Each structure stands twice: as structure tokens, then as C-alpha cells.
Amino acid sequence: MSHLDIAVGDRRLISKLELHIDRGEFWCILGKNGSGKTTLLQVIAGLRSNSKAQIQLCGEALQSTPLALLAQRRGLMMQQQVDVFPHTVFDAVAIGQVVGWSSTNDDSMSANFSVSTALEKVGMAGSEGRNVLTLSGGERQRVALAALLVQAPELMLLDEPVSHQDVAQQLQVMQLLRELSTNHAVISSCHDINLAKRFATHALVLGEGQHWSGSVGDILVPEILSLAFGCEFMQQGDWLLPFQAHGASSR
After folding, report:
1. Helix 137-151 crosses helix 167-180 at what angle (to 10 degrees)?
2. Domains of the chain, with CATH numbers?
3. pLDDT digits (tens, 9 = 90+) for 85-102
4. I need a labelling partner for 75 at 20 to 30 A (CA). Which of 105, 143, 169, 251 fits?
5. pTM of the predicted structure, to 2 decimals
6. Three-state SS annotation for 160-177
């Protein structure tokens, strides 16, 4: 994508973003609340219009890609899942089959997920008959991830996929996304900087009027994080730790 500008009302969130994402890469988007992470995912998915941006998916302009083909090429997992009527976990996951499977990938981490296999991958094995209205927030989020696995799009977009997960499930989900990125392009928003540093291959950090993108080792460093988040960071071993807000007293 190129020349991407995103504004909400009179507030410009992202200016002149240039980003190229390939299969085999796992990108994490990080930034303060309101920095544009969710909005960016929606623009990439084609759910928000952006007339100035040039977004290509598999070499074709996003705006001119037929909807049926677009559904095969990209999938978006939202942070919140809203269920109005009761239905089974099986049905919630099987909806991913409606768009059809891509024929470009043929290994176990791409287009071969059955509903049961996808549920097993997200730690929900044997839950096919449960009513989605009885699930916890974390369980419902993993069911949505299983639906994305069944859909198996070439580009997987995820909005805060571990926001409702306990520590063990956070690790499982992030490891799964890293494995999926072997054969898919994966982009996920994330609040946990150290999870992103551990599992992602690339990072996009959004700040006030600026952004930084590239490999995790180059981007997730104290200097950039301090500018983006408005607090000081330090490196302690493999950990990136915030320790003081800009302008705060050191006493």
C-alpha cells in the first residue's frame, strides 16, 4: 500500500504510509489508544473507503477486486464478536467455508482446516455443539479465530486477537499466528509490546503524526517506543519496559 492517509474527523491519524507485506511475514501494529490501529485494519480490509490510498492485494487494486475474490484473499477478525441469536460453535466456525478455500496453498497450515481441526488449533476442541451465547469473551474470540483458519485467506487481519485471553492462551494464539505466517501474510494489532517482539517478524508503530515500520529488531527499540507512547522505555534483557511518563517527576 502507498500514500495512505487516515483521518477521523479533523484529526489525522496516519500520513503517507508506505507498506509492503509478503507471505511469510507476521506484522504487529502497535500504538497508543486512538492511534488508528483498528481503522487501519479496516481500510486494508476494504471496509473503509480511502480514495487517495493505493492498496493492492495479490497484485490487484483492492477497490476493483470482486467481492467474492476479495473474501478469498483477505479475512478480518474483529476484536469484539456480537451474537444476537443463539447458534452453535460449529456454525460460527463453518461460516468461514462460505467464501470458499484458496487453491494457492496446499499444506497443513493453509487451506486444509476442517471445523474440528481449526477448533483444536485454538484450544477449543470438542466445543462444536456449544451455544455461542454461553461462551466467555476469550472463548468467543478463539472461535472467531477458528473461523478465520477455515476461511484460510492469503492475508489474515486480526484486531487485538489476545485482548480477552489468559496468559497461556495469549502464548498459544501468538505462536499459532507465527506458524500461519509461514504460508500467509498476517497483520495483527497488539497492545503487548513484548509479545509482539517475541513472535512477530515485523512491526508498525503508530505515533502522533509519524510512524515507524520494519523488522521487529529495528523498530521495537526504546527510542522509537518512547516517542510513540509518550513514556520512557528501557531494555532489560529481552524485555522492553516502560518506566516513566514524559514530563513526570523522577522522585
Report:
1. 10
2. 4-220 (3.40.50.300), 221-251 (no CATH)
3. 999 999 999 998 876 554
4. 169
5. 0.89
6. CCCCCCCHHHHHHHHHHH
